[in-house]
Amino acid sequence: MKIALLTDGITPYCIGGMQRHSANLCKHLLELGHEVTLVHCVYGKSKLPTNNDVKNAFENPTHLNVFGFRFPSLGQMPGHYLRESHQYSTDLFQKLKTEWSTFDLVIAKGFTAWHLLNLKRKKKIDIGPIAVNFHGLEMFQRPASFSERIKSWLLKDPVKWNLKHADYVVSYGGKITEILIQLNIEKSKIAEIPSGIDSDWIVTQRIQNEHPVFVFLGRYERRKAIEEINAVLKNHTHIQFHFIGDIPFRKRIQSKNITYHGPQKDKKSICKLLDACDAIVSPSYSEGMPNVLLEGMARGLVPIATNVGAVEVLINEQSGILIEKPQDIENAILLFNSMSQSERQLLADTGLQQVKKNFIWEKIRVGTEQLLQQMIEKS
According to the model, what pLDDT value does residue 16 have? Predict the structure, then answer.
């Protein structure tokens, strides 16, 4: 297959679950022998890597073509992100103008195919199927604040338009598929493809600490419920907690039992920090299929997470603790803290086995390849 992979950034040049997923997807498509044209971007003043630097970051770059962009910056007026996203979709279309008819399939993250979809709708371009992936569809999940509600309101109609005009829509499953069905996306257009993790994340054996240690891994966003975690830590000062990510100083608590490690890009550093903990906490208001939960479970940590997005695809009562809303995180942390070491170990071992069985990229990519091939054959 000859595939165009349109992304809103890839790791390590951009940090985030979507960006990591894009990099992993590209890597495994290449390892399966497919030809990939990767479109990516950087934001703000971040350095734009050369195309050769990006290619050399992959182990099998022979069939990889790279196009790098700087994401447009159009001021801070309300709706600027939508205008920038549409401009980015136009810019990348123009850059690859002579290429589109050569692709068997286009996989588009977020709004990256916006302009392309409009041209296809108007029959102004001859192109294969376009599969759109909005990951968590957070704008259709519970907002964390009034400002988040306004942002979601602005995004809903443009997202619906892109979903409606795509040939296929990629879902992680769980509540993400439910949202798509509620938006009247035809079931035949929905392709459920889970996220995954590379096998080298998997720990051979991991023993829970005698006294539980908790960790949050990720960047600061209001929807990640840092405030709710902080409320628990202020009420229960004996709890040992680690934060890995860019937590603002104004959100940090001064306590001997709380450690802030800042953002970590190196896999070895992340693994070392995770290996000292017992539970990974993700009480988000909205999510897709969080990579951080996969990473934690792969290192033998027990996940404690809100039942949003596709989290229920990853976690059940035998492998972790699911909560219904972020405010329930206090009870969940106290419950885990009260468990015996053997009870916690059973949860951790079960979660680790689930990741090994269902969420290793080397396994997921086979099903992914089959679904992509079916998209092409049906079009």
Answer: 83
